[in-house]
Amino acid sequence: MSKCFQFVDEDKGPIDPETLTSNDGPRVNQVGLSRKHILDAVDRSVERLGTYIDVLQIHRMDRDVPPEEIMKALHDVIESGKVRYIGASSMAAWEFQMLQNIAVRNGWHQFISMQGLYNLLYREEERETNQYCNATGVGLFPWSPLAAGVLTHPWTDRSDLREQKDPFLQLLFRTSENGADKAIVGRVQELAGKKNVSMAQVAQAWLISKGCMPICGLETKERIDQAVGALEVELSADEVAYLEESYVPKLPIPF
Q1: What is the torsional sign of CA 62, 68, 69, 70?
Q2: Maximum Cα interatomic distance, the chain, rounded to a whole number of Å
Q3: If 32 and its partner were Cys, which of 57, 62, 121, 138 is the partner (CB 3.0–4.6 Å)?
Q4: Alpha-carbon distance 122 to 66, whole Å?
Q5: Least confident of 3-17, 31-45, 57-71, 227-241
Q6: Which of 48, 46, 108 is nearest to 82 (CA)?
Q7: Which residues form the NADP-dependent oxidoreductase domain (predicted)?
Q8: Cα(177)–Cα(56) distance, integer angstroms
């Protein structure tokens, strides 16, 4: 799997996160979903990989580019043999459906996957996007399945380095946390104790029960083993309902 949207620093130097999506100055045509950037990004990815791309995900929607241009470029990289399938990530449900409809009208390749923000603490994708994907056979690959680690340890345990250093953890979860989040984390901890598994495995098992294949950050063998172990964790319908019961709807995060 590979992605296309943000700037990729070939020199691996320091990157300012605020300019990752800035299609201007020295990074013009190296950001976004213009035809030029999609074709160039695929060529560079294939060169680095030394083989084809199985799934190319557009990493967010580019609202500065005509949607027809986006879909035609994605169709063409599949036809070239460099990409096998295409997927999308975090956008409004109507935008995703619009892109799919453009592909259908023109006989172009359609998206086979959606990579949205979805976990026990953020379930707004259930309103429209997940339902549309399930109805049309689009696979769901949620990102941040563990809510940036919030679902992996007790609510009051905030001593790890990520709690202090990760701006996305603060932006996406800590700044909007509420009593419902605390209750959900507590229930994840409770079920993990009863089943003698990790909290992460319970959170991942819940996503699997919803028909999703979560994208997990795996930096160590222990985390790989833990993620694989989540496949063996079975949650009953009552346990799934118990984990979901405390959820309070949130304002959708704009992407």
Answers
A1: positive
A2: 55
A3: 62
A4: 30
A5: 3-17
A6: 46
A7: 24-246
A8: 33
Local confidence band at 8 (pLDDT 50, 70, 90 cut-offs): low
C-alpha to C-alpha distance for 187 and 195, rounded to whole angstroms? 12
Q: Which residues pair with 88 in a beta bridge?
A: 58, 114
In the predicted structure, residue 187 carries a pLDDT above the cut 50: yes
Tokens standing for 79? 């036809």
CA of residue 188 relative to chain centroid, distance: 21
**Residue 54 gets which letter from DSSP?**
E
How many residues would you count in the chain? 255
Which segments of the chain are extended strands (E)? Answer: 2-4, 53-58, 83-89, 111-115, 139-140
Please check the confidence at residue 38 and state whether its pLDDT lies above 90: yes
Q: What is the DSSP-derived secondary structure letter of residue 161?
A: H
Q: Is 48 exposed, middle or buried (0-12, 13-18, 19+ CB in 10 A)?
A: exposed
Q: What is the pTM of this model?
A: 0.86
What band does 14 get if pLDDT is binned at 50, 70 and 90? very low
Cα–Cα distance measured from residue 128 to residue 118, given in angstroms and rounded to the nearest whole number: 12
5-19, 51-65, 122-136 — which is least confidently predicted? 5-19
Residue with tokens 């701006």: 167
Please state, as a whole number, how many other Cβ atoms lie within 10 Å of the Cβ of residue 42.
23
